[in-house]
């Protein structure tokens, strides 16, 4: 799958909702109710990070939830990409980008949202054919003002910023012309998952889904 087609798919994901939940699932039993709760709240695009032992099983289970579009996050290696695809992930997210990970996305035909922060990193991915990127770690590298500045010389590249984003600051990103959506873990707090408080998660999702952009 070409980088152009991957970015086209990623732009399409952003059209579904302003926020992509970034999920760390430690208990496989949480996967399906969590996905149902987020989809019910209006956030159908779900990024399951490959940071827990059950992440791949969680992706497989959540992929059966009606209305959800489940992808894999924290893709660091070609092996991660292969495993994500095999588990049923519809897209992949990487905190950065390496040649081998980019090649794996093309080989596995899995749309990738690769990470970039500096103008040179953005230019390298744009040169390769990507025009929809992750901006990570958003808050730590300068937040919305930094992303807005990159949009000056490189307006044709759009972003999904993640890292330190919450309901309180999401708007500062979503109001930028080069931001199509943002990612964040705040919509699925650990405590709510542990307590099985899926209604609380649905209402956090509702608030996030209603963010204007
Ligand atoms: C990630 O990939 O870990 C995201 O950037 C999540 O960041 P957050 O937990 O600060 O929302």
What is the string of helix and strand elements? Answer: HEHEHEHEHEHEHEHEHH
Terminal-residue CA separation: 29 Å
Beta-strand percentage?
Answer: 5-15%
Question: How many structural domains does the protein architecture include?
Answer: 1
Basic shape: globular
Question: Which structural class do you get from the secondary structure elements?
Answer: alpha/beta
Low-confidence stretches: none
CATH topology: TIM Barrel
Quickly count the helices. 10
Under the CATH scheme, the architecture is Alpha-Beta Barrel
**Percent in helix:** 40-55%
**Main beta sheet strand tally, sense and closure:** 4 strands, parallel
Rg, alpha carbons: 16 Å
As laid out across the biggest beta sheet, the strand order is 3-2-1-8
Mean pLDDT: 98
- Report the strand count: 8
Name the CATH homologous superfamily: Aldolase class I
| Small molecules in complex | 3-phosphoglyceric acid
Protein architecture, described:
The chain is an alpha/beta fold. It has one domain (3-209): Aldolase class I (TIM Barrel). It contains 10 helices and 8 strands. It has helices at residues 3-16, 28-40, 55-62, 78-87, 99-108, 119-128, 143-151, 167-174, 190-195, 198-209; strands spanning 19-23, 45-49, 69-73, 92-93, 112-113, 132-135, 158-161, 182-184. Strands 3-2-1-8 form a 4-stranded parallel sheet, sandwiched between helices. The chain starts with a helix and ends with a helix. 3-phosphoglyceric acid (3PG) is lined by residues 22, 73, 95, 136, 162-165, 183-185. 3-phosphoglyceric acid binds next to strand 8.
């Amino acid at each position: 799958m070409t980088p152009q087609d991957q970015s086209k798919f990623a732009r399409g994901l952003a059209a579904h909702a302003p926020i992509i939940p970034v999920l760390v699932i430690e208990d496989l039993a949480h996967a399906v109710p969590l996905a149902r709760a987020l989809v019910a709240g209006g956030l159908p695009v779900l990024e399951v990070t490959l940071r827990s032992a059950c992440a791949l099983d969680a992706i497989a289970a959540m992929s059966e939830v009606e209305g959800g579009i489940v992808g894999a996050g924290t893709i660091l290696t070609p092996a991660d990409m292969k495993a994500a695809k095999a588990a049923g992930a519809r897209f992949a997210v990487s905190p950065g980008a390496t040649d081998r990970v980019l090649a794996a996305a093309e080989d596995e035909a899995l749309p990738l949202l690769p990470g970039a922060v500096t103008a040179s990193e953005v230019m390298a991915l744009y040169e390769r054919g990507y025009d929809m990127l992750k901006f990570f770690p958003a808050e730590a590298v300068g937040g919305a003002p930094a992303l807005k500045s990159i949009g000056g010389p490189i307006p044709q590249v759009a972003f999904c910023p993640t890292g330190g984003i919450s309901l309180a600051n999401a708007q500062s990103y979503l109001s930028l012309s080069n931001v199509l959506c943002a990612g964040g873990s705040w919509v699925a707090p650990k405590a709510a998952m542990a307590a099985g408080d899926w209604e609380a998660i649905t209402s956090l999702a509702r608030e996030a889904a209603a963010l204007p952009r």
